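Dock S-adenosylmethionine; give full complex structure.
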Amino acid sequence: MYNPKSLNADEFIDHQEILDTLEYADANKNNRELILGLLEKARPKYENGQVHCEGLTHREASVLLACEDEELISKMYDLAEEIKKAFYGNRIVFFAPLYLSNYCVNGCLYCPYHTANKHIPRKKLTQEEVKKEVIALQDMGHKRLAIEAGEDPVNNPIEYILECINTIYSIKHKNGAIRRVNVNIAATTVENYRKLKEVGIGTYILFQETYHKENYLRLHPTGPKHDYNYHTEAMDRAMEGGIDDVGLGVLFGLDKYRYEFAGLLMHAEHLEAVHGVGPHTISVPRVKKADDIDPNEFDNGISDDIFAKLCALIRISVPYTGMIISTRETQEVREKVIRLGVSQVSGGSRTSVGGYQEEERPHDTEQFDVSDQRTLDEVISWMMDMDYIPSFCTACYRAGRTGDRFMALCKSGQIQNCCHPNALLTLKEYLVDYATPETKAKGEQMIQKEILTIPSKSVQEKVTYYLDQIDKGNRDFRF
Ligand code: SAM
């Protein structure tokens, strides 16, 4: 029986509820009146300087996903853009993945790290190597990392992950610092989540891969990840362990996208119903070519248009949840979906263990082929050409604004006086410390233009003072 408040995965991601949802969506996909009503419901409402969005339920959003009317779809895109502007303005936060180890005991059929893959070299970074990777990342300008590791209780136990996180935070090379470490490791125990919280992680990210249980069991034939319920209930354990920023994701291509979309929103509704706070982020990876992996073997691949529609509908349905897009996607696709609601992107990524220390991009231990292979500076410059402010901000988490406190900031209307200046200050640090002269010139111009959009005069003055301080060699100012 479907029950969003249950702690049993079979009940909060109820298979029959998803089937009924898809049937309801098919029955209503040409119901123009209903669809226009849903778009109106999801529109941002402004009141007393505050902006509020209601979002949509998995059933409502599934109707929009089923709709094939071009005119209505273009209204969905316009609305996604409007919501994005209301909550995220023109800021895009940057991060980079850091692969610690590709040792893995699981048998995931889509992942090159699967245990039966004998021709991929297995590698695990020593603390000395972690340090070198972090220095290389700091020298690019990164401030926020997502650490990645295979699941292997012998080679990558939680103590190893914790040691790596401590090493990462301890490195201060020139003006560099990693100020937020997000963690993407396999489902674990409440006790281990508590330990991750204690060493100061940002978001705990775990992709569901697929919400279709039967298919999940087939795609994960061996290893601890085979346990669908343990995997699906991981976010509840993470929250019990004190982590209130969690990141969901589906690996699109494994199962039917409409099924996954309904499951993803049901998962978000479940977190809200049980813990009073929805997911901090949602990631939208698509299966890519990799060593021993041919994405064509998974026959549920989605077109770029459907991908864009999914991104727009996630933005409309869960307006307060950040959306992440990685370098799995090409420049062209990234350009399209950033407009529709993406709030975080990776740049200059290497998806191999130890890849940042190498001059040339190494392929032998890569987790997937990187489509966007530009340098971070090139991506930053491109972002500014599109009039987006590249941001390296990590302020919320460091000021304790996580979970529902972050959501409260989103709703308060104070974003232009808080997130916007923080974006400008962290961009300034990037320009002074790492940018090429062309990017620097472009960025300085952008900052001068964007200061004027800060509503509070006193905040404007403070930002001007902090910018001058950054020129004088001081760092890490924030609101
Ligand atoms: N090992 C951890 C786990 O099992 O959750 C997480 C780390 S894994 C390095 C990060 C994610 O990469 C996986 O959750 C999966 O969704 C994604 N991934 C695996 N193989 C992929 C492929 N061939 N193409 C694109 N993404 C892939």
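Observed: The two ends are 46 Å apart (CA to CA).
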